[in-house]
Design goal:
This protein is α+β, with helices and mostly antiparallel strands and 138 residues long. Strand 1 and strand 2 form a beta hairpin. 26% of the residues lie in helices and 28% in strands. The protein has one domain: SH3 type barrels (Roll).
Length: 138
């Protein structure tokens, strides 16, 4: 009788296991080819856009101002206070969030200098802007 019970439990688990929980249809990062869309908050401002990559010291963001103007921005990780994806609640930036967004980035393995040059050329930018050099509003 025990083998029959085990087989029944296994069969039920296999047939319902994939139907319960999140699916690719409802998971926003799986809906496009790019990286996760996020709002990154620093002490100075909030920047929204696509997370391109995260390395040991910074996050590379393709910032979208919402009216069609884009720019590549490098944000030092130590300056990030929180991150928010879509309509979800903003979460404090920590090692767990850093690893999660690294995996959800368009380039999870990072951006090489050559790839960075190609991105600049593709978008028509002269340089990557460094958010750490921006002045806080008075």
């Amino acid at each position: 009788m025990a083998p029959r019970m085990i087989l029944t439990v296994l069969a039920v688990s296999l047939t319902t296991g994939c139907a319960v929980g999140p699916s690719l249809k409802s998971w926003s990062p799986a809906q496009s080819a790019g990286g996760a869309k996020a709002t990154i908050a620093t002490a100075r401002e909030k920047l929204s856009g696509e997370v391109l990559s995260i390395d040991d010291g910074s996050l590379l963001l393709l910032q979208d101002d919402g009216v069609g103007s884009l720019r590549l921005v490098r944000i030092p990780l130590v300056e990030i206070a929180s991150v928010q994806e879509g309509e979800s609640k903003a979460e404090r930036w920590n090692d767990k969030q850093q690893e999660r967004y690294r995996l959800l980035a368009r380039y999870p393995a990072g951006v090489t200098p050559e790839l960075e040059r190609r991105l600049l050329a593709a978008y028509g930018f002269k340089k990557v802007e460094d958010a750490s050099r921006w002045q806080a509003d008075p």
